[in-house]
Amino acid sequence: MTRAAWLVAALATCAGVVIPSPSPGQQYAPSPPYWAVTGVRSNDVLHLRDMPAAESKSLAGIPAGAHGLKNLGCRSNVPSLEEWMRMSKAERDRGPTQWCRVEYQGKQGWVAGRYLRKDEQAGR
Questions:
Q1: Domains in the chain, please, with CATH?
Q2: What confidence tens digit (pLDDT) does each residue in 100-114 have?
Q3: Are 89 and 58 spatial neighbours (Cβ–Cβ below 8 Å)?
Q4: In this predicted model, what pLDDT tens digit does every residue of 75-99 receive, in sequence order?
Q5: Containing H/E element for 14?
Q6: Which of 15, 36, 39, 70 gives 119 a disulfide partner, CB atoms 3.0 to 4.6 angstroms apart?
Q7: Other CB atoms within 10 A of residue 43 CB
Q8: DSSP per-residue letters across 24-55
Q9: Cα separations (Å) of 25 from 21, 22, 28, 97, 114?
Q10: Contact status, residue 102 vs residue 67, Cβ threshold 8 Å
């Protein structure tokens, strides 16, 4: 259970609200189910990383315009107040970064969400 889900469940419990849990047959299905790469120059690649951070290890390079990246879920890297206070104005202006976990050609990892768009071709 994620920290956010745990917090919501704890608050709901304290308030006396019952939140139904998914039945064993239900699974989380991110939307959209597939991504396509956008905004990457034709002579460059989108790095598939082992962690949701730009300085983490690159596992593979996904070509510009690639399709069929399976969406395994996204998250935003939001700095703590202490980290935010140490950031430069330029870093603050960039704001939180969205990272998405994807599967591409059998490899799983994280990519920067700003380079993804819904894949209209997948699943046809």
A1: 28-118 (2.30.30.40)
A2: 999 999 999 999 999
A3: no
A4: 987 878 888 888 888 877 777 789 9
A5: helix 3-15
A6: 36
A7: 6
A8: TT-----SSSEEEE-S--TT-EEEEESSSSTT
A9: 11, 8, 10, 33, 33
A10: no
